[in-house]
Amino acid sequence: MTTEGCRHWKESLGAYALDHLSADERAGVEAHLEGCARCRAEVESLLAVSHLLPHADPERFGPAPQPPAELGRRVAATIRAERRSTRRQRLRWGLGLSGAAAVATAAVLAILVLSSGEGPGPEQHVAFRSLPDGVKVAATLEPQAFGTEIHMYVSGISSGTLCRVYMKGPDGTAISAGSFRYRWGADASAVLSAALDLSRARALVVHAGNRTFVAPLDHVATTASTQRQEEATT
Amino acid sequence: MREAYAAHAAELFGFAVRSLGDAGLAEEAVQETFLRAWRAGERFDPQIGSLRTWLFAILRNVVIDLGRARAARPGVAEGGIEPSVEPFDEALLAWQIEEAMRRIGEDHRKVLIETYYRGRPYAEVAAELGVPEGTVKSRVYYGLRALRVVLEEMGYDD
User: Based on the domain organization, do A123 and A39 belong to the same domain?
Assistant: First the structure.
């Protein structure tokens, strides 16, 4: 088959693959395909693409959402923190200290790693609502004999900001959990403690510079799941 | 890991948003994916597959774990994620085609949307665009070819 003939037919092959041709046009293309191996191969590969089209949603052909620039820094900081803590862990084991130190380091990581399928532990994840764009504040709370251990995670605020952390008791009094300074690019997590039982805490409050972020503690969910477990055992 | 992030984070994030339906969760998923990739760095073998394919495989596990974690916390789970694998693969396929559509030329995308997805006659589309009908036909042809090329570049394999 001549190249000239192919050029004529070729541009109909897309419409052919999508089954958009009239019966006459179709017959014409098929007659050409009979004798032209190159166009047959081309149709094959266009058909493969056309079979994929129904899987896509044309409403989603617009610009894709982009990750915030800050996510890259957070990923880098998380990896740096883990690299540092695994080194520290090795050092501690090497010195023959108890495994408790390593366990504590692992607990710090828990907030960075999020839950990776180990199932719910006794710790409680706290979400801060209505944060300004780009600001992330999160915490994990762990009940301890002395009160509550708080693993804070902060990012997106100005470097050097002083953050003071409080827990609110049942009567509304604030019990200090200590303070830390947020350093851009450095470890974004801090471990604090408050002399208040987690079960009695009403809210976690963070004063970051002149801004205040409050996370009410939802004990209802915890109680509900405990009840469910009790029912299951009886 | 920095280079891997620069090359693939946008794509992983775009897909995670589509799959999880939530930008915050998608950020978590992408962060966890790179953390796991960093931990398993030595196990990455370029002989077996591309870095992109490997990262998407990790993301797939992360998305499944996020679904399980949500299901395990009754108080937190809201409109939970389907922890099964099937919808993930379907969503990944859909997302790759949508991403390919974004990367081909505007003219090509336009005629494919009008003639294929909206099922409009070529003559009508041609009149609306102010071009001969033959041009619409040839744009459909070159549009499909461009899609094929972009999908290959993205590492799509059927």
Answer: no
